[in-house]
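Batch manifest line 1581
LIGAND: adenosine-5'-triphosphate
JOB: complex structure
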Amino acid sequence: MATVDVKNLCKRYDDFVALDGVSIAARSGELVTLLGPSGCGKSTTLRCLAGFLEPDGGEMAVDGQSILATPSNRRGFGVVFQNYALFPHMTVAENIGYGLRLRKCSGSEITTRVHDVMSLVKLTGLEHRMPREISGGQQQRVALARALVLKPKLLLLDEPLANLDARLRDEVRWLIRDLQQQSGITAFYVTHDQSEAMAISDMVAVMKKGRVAQFATPREIYQKPVERYVADFTGEANFLSCRSLEACGEGRMRISVGGAELDVDCVPSLEPGEAAELLLRPESLQLATLGEDVTFRGRIVKSAFLGASQHCEIALADGGVLKLTTAPNAPVRIGDEVGIVVDRSHAWLMPEGTK
Amino acid sequence: MATVDVKNLCKRYDDFVALDGVSIAARSGELVTLLGPSGCGKSTTLRCLAGFLEPDGGEMAVDGQSILATPSNRRGFGVVFQNYALFPHMTVAENIGYGLRLRKCSGSEITTRVHDVMSLVKLTGLEHRMPREISGGQQQRVALARALVLKPKLLLLDEPLANLDARLRDEVRWLIRDLQQQSGITAFYVTHDQSEAMAISDMVAVMKKGRVAQFATPREIYQKPVERYVADFTGEANFLSCRSLEACGEGRMRISVGGAELDVDCVPSLEPGEAAELLLRPESLQLATLGEDVTFRGRIVKSAFLGASQHCEIALADGGVLKLTTAPNAPVRIGDEVGIVVDRSHAWLMPEGTK
Amino acid sequence: MSGASTMFVQQRPVGLGFALLIVLLYVFLLVPLVTIVGASFTAGLMIEFPPRGFSLQWYREFFGRRDLVDGLLLSLRVGAITAIVTTIVATMAALCGQALSGRKGGWFQLAMTLPLLVPELLTAVGLLFFLFKIGLGKTVLGLQMGHILMSFPYAYVSITAALRQVPSSLDEASASLGATHWQTFRMVTLPLIMPGVVMGAIFAFINSFDLYTISLLLKPLGGNTLPLALFDFLTYEFKPTAAAAATISIVLSVIGVALVQRLVGLQRAF
Amino acid sequence: QSDRFIVNMFGGRWENDWRQHVMPRFAEQTGKPFDLDIGLGMSWISNFRAAGVDNPPFPAVMLNEKYTAMIRNDGYFEELTPEKVPNMADLIEPAILKGKTAVTGMLAPLVLAYRTDLVKSPPKGWADLWDERFKGQLGLYKITNSAATMMALWAGEHFGSGRDDIETAIAKFKELAPFPQIGYSAQLTPLLTQGQIAVAPIDVGEVKSMQEQGVPIDFVVPEEGMMVFDHSFSVFKNHPDKKLGEDYVNFVLSPETQLWMAENWLIAPTNKTVELPEELQKWPLQADVVSKAIRFDWDETLAIIPDLNDLWERTI
Amino acid sequence: MIKARHLRLLLGAPAVVLIFVFMILPITNMVEMSFRVPGTVEPFGDDYTLMHYTRVFGDSFYWGILARSLLTAGSVALLCLIVSYPIAWHLSKASGLKAALLYALIASPLMTGVLVRNFGWMIVTALNGPLNETLIGLGIISQPLRLLFTQGLVIVALVHVFVPFMVLPINNALRNIPDNLVEASVSMGASRYRVFRDIILPLSFPGIQPGLILVYVLAVAAYVTPALLGGQMVTYMPTMIIAELTGTFRWPLGSALAIMLSLSTILVVGLFTMLTWRLMERARA
Ligand SMILES: Nc1ncnc2c1ncn2[C@@H]1O[C@H](COP(=O)(O)OP(=O)(O)OP(=O)(O)O)[C@@H](O)[C@H]1O
Ligand SMILES: Nc1ncnc2c1ncn2[C@@H]1O[C@H](COP(=O)(O)OP(=O)(O)OP(=O)(O)O)[C@@H](O)[C@H]1O
Ligand SMILES: [Mg+2]
Ligand SMILES: [Mg+2]
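JOB STATUS: finished
ARTIFACT:
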């Protein structure tokens, strides 16, 4: 229920530049994810927002008002930490009610509000346990409840699922998304897991060494990345070097790749003749069956059964390798010669980048 | 290069029965995975094999010879631990060479063998770093190299990838599989990640509370699980309660479910009339396009863009929910009425089980 | 542990030898104390172990001796004040030390443990001159300052160790929930470092109760601490009363430890 | 003027008795509460020196002459006269010390004690300490104790060229090494009691208390003459309670107090008017025995002490 | 936020004042004292001189006592390590109530004064004391041993006093060694002994080093125990210093000796730290 504007945020630790001009924004009720590899500055950005760190430069505003001068304890944001940061000497109920107690709420009000939020996150019955006596998933929910009970303007979540196992992660991820949408709280969410980011965000900021490489919707990030780094980080990807021959319409380009010529969508700023790379997601590739329009040919070099699907790697004649996914029971044998069909509407051309 | 036979292994911690008759076997050169949720006894099994724990009952044999009486330091197995267990006070090269040193190899032999194995796992150049000065993925490879350099009869890996991030995990997982296959070492591999288990194993033992629920190839485990627990643990799954009407051939059964009658494969021991559950993996379901043979009808209640695909949940008329996966750009809107097509060759009938 | 225990199973003789060694070492730790306590109950006239019969006569004698009882009372008073003041100052210093990082933190740590690193004697003599210079010579306050100084590092080290166990994310979590620094300290940090604080206070008290050289030089007019009184007593009389006095200090220490155990649990305190 | 009257005393039994049996009578006289500063010569001297001439912490002090000598030339003390301290008139002559800054109030005889069960023929005098039969059975003092100083000076005189012949003295003691070196005479008690040593120069008071505990022990007054620990009393010139201090010294020298100390501590009275009761006759407290004791000039001794200590430490 | 940080630093002020005023100033005073000329009336005169240092450093007698002090402290520290290591190991394997009891047991010497403990040793080692009786009872000796006032007893008593200072840090370090390092090394074929030598010992060094340093520093300056149990048969630096300061009242000389002792202690500790720096660096996880 608040708009957030972060402009050109900079932060140095001694000599090390951790943030080098980060700009992101959230509209009211949006969930914005900061996605990036370890050390790229995600937590630093969040900690500046929370007020735990003082930025060296830039502006942060909530609802149009700068918060730079507001100390952490008056910003009124909810923060959920990676390792939960539950107070080990307080029961679950005391943890959740702590913020209310600080606000001098009456005992009965605290009881009802704690009770309500606990049933919201499905923790009823655990009031009197200590944090060490409940499971990781439950701890995570306590941390969430503790932040939510104060009805924060803005929710900041720093890798809230990192310590959960795969199955719990899924469950809590949906819980967070549901609660955030129900209550309409604006949220910033830090993760280095691309599928997590894709699944729950309204907007994703892919970060790279203290900068934002791309800030867009999940779909755009995945399908129309502005550089190889983004494509690489947001999912499995095949890259083929190619020559761009000529523009053929707004944002389209004709290219020559692996002996074939194709018309594909491209990054708008790309100029014909520039060295470029073609992004082919595994799911836009298919092994050819009879009579199809084969784009590439190659030999299967690796395959693995993954349950819901099979993973194959195919070496092309010119040395490139394409990874693709097939139905779990498709007959793939290492060494077979195969043809590959490309879904051209999902090929994407980017300027050649350093990885 | 060794066959391993574990028969009826039992282990108690005080009152708690951690292993309750575990039997698994590995043929020479096979990679056998122990898969199961936290606390089911995977590590305990492995630690009995390694000799760190003394089993209370059962038999363990390598190449037909019992190893029960052999102390751990004479079993000659290689062990790779979850958190690597690198010696923090030794350099990378010293860590890898430690076992050779214990075997009183000459200095020059140690140097060459360490060098060889380091280039095998692509660590060349890091010889003189301390473990804390290299990345998680590199540490993992040191742990692997340290076990491999001794040419162990049997390699035991306890969640070797748990501490790596998603991208590294993939890389190291393939490295392990490649090395294991190249050298033909028999290996036991512990994980709770089903996709990991599926991807690299020759055989998978799915464990449940100190027992082996199913011991089979990955494909069989995924497609023909003997009970709901196994199906649930090895991937996304939809379960529909149904009535089995009559057997219709070897291992096939006619059932009635959600208003339709189907002929499906089933667990051989299943008797007609028994309460049963139908397993439908998300990938064997498809949203119907025009004119297809629709099995179920329902309404879309949730959808999420995952990059390579989209996830939908569809509520059926009788209250059941089916999860399925569609192409990333398929038009799915929450609230739409849709039909669902089932790939009958991949439906699987199991006895009704407690979850 | 399990790895080691398996090894035990296989090499029992070593295990047995080790167990014997451990028992001997613990006996070594306890022997002088047990002897004193035993000797204090003797019915005979000489200090000896095993005691000759059982009697409480030496305790009666102890409580009849004003020099010893006064020493005990002064020691208790100085020790209690030392424990309180030291703990407060050390808690503040530990919070400060936590905020200092790297090299500066190292120097601070060194400065705070200085009284432990300089021979007590040097400090004592220096303090003696200094206290007379500032008009605190031969006063209880001067003695008190000496005790606080010498006990400070123990409390500081114990509290700092406890503070290090509190992740900084708890402070941040508390701030994000609206707590001021003081509220965070009172409601989060302090309860969590309490075991360390209590342990620090106990260490400070015990140390103060035991200081000899400093007390010898700085003791106030007309006052003697228990160790000094005991030393004097032993100098002129060699009677089991001394064993009774020593036993009383042991009992006081045990009460202190039991108090920690009740307040914070001993395992957490170390 | 302070509200309490403070004087010094040794700790332990001394303190206890002084507090309970002696001082109350003085407090009754003056009507002022009292307190004791417990310690030893060296700690008092440290304190007086640290406090300076102008700020003595309390008005009257009891010290071994060794310590008195250290500061009596520094202007700390008041000159004492029979006008100020009437009982001075009855003192035996050697009790009035140099410069009249101090009077000896207690003389504690130092004799040779021996275990009657462990020693077949008892020693007769100091020289017998060097006899083969006592080898390894001796307990002596460390050199910072005045007893050791006195014995060293005596040995210099007896075996060498004079009291300042420290080389000879030390060489003679070297012959006796190793022997336990004790800080205070009472620390010899447990050793004698347990039989860890058989012969030691010791305060007669200790002999008496050991005999009372049933230890088979006896003593001889050395034929060369016994030595004495002398505790002298002085008054500080610059203390506001100087007058009370003088009264206190007078009180200590009074026949009642002197007799009390003789009866309870086996201290030889320095007041000539004291009549020793019958049961004390077997102890060497009588004025004629005491006058034959070997005495030392502490001013000279102090000049020798640094070198003596040095050589002792280096040699033994 | 800047302000909050400064406030936090301000919390250190009382402690800094305490240390500065009651520790650093007095010691500076002592240092100054050590450069004074000896006094005739007062313990020191008004002029400054280096004579005490030339005297102290130029005299093999003092060097001998210093060396004896440092060596004795060194052997106390080493013996203490030998005694403490098994205890620390045993302790690090205990948990729950057992651990609490063991902690109490180990801390017990700390909780009873130096004097009390020394007094205990006097009783134990008496000619007819329990130790002699036991040894005679076991037939190990036929004559009671005179143990009081021997250097051996001083060392034993000092070791006893300092055991807790050694056990606690080593126990800490041992607890921080993950079990699976031991298992890893066993799985590679290491014997019990090799596991100890190659893994446990080096990794517990971060506990051993501070333990050794602390015990060493405390042992160098120990005064009461040698005075009470040593019977002054041998002279140590602290005894010397006390004697000079409070016996002969040569304060400048005493100060110089005290400073010599402190400096050489710092030197030894510094040297030791430097020599073991690599070991520490390596073991720091
Ligand atoms: N207190 C600090 N002092 C110095 N450098 C720091 C500090 N905190 C973080 N850094 C550095 O700043 C960079 C950004 O850190 P940040 O914690 O924001 O990364 P992140 O994106 O959250 O990574 P992760 O996924 O590992 O949490 C890192 O390279 C880190 O090493
Ligand atoms: N030393 C022990 N004492 C008592 N119980 C133990 C001990 N070690 C393990 N257990 C219990 O035995 C069971 C099996 O443990 P094990 O470590 O084999 O599980 P796991 O399958 O490896 O689980 P995870 O995935 O969490 O590692 C668990 O319930 C655990 O609580
Ligand atoms: Mg982070
Ligand atoms: Mg496990």
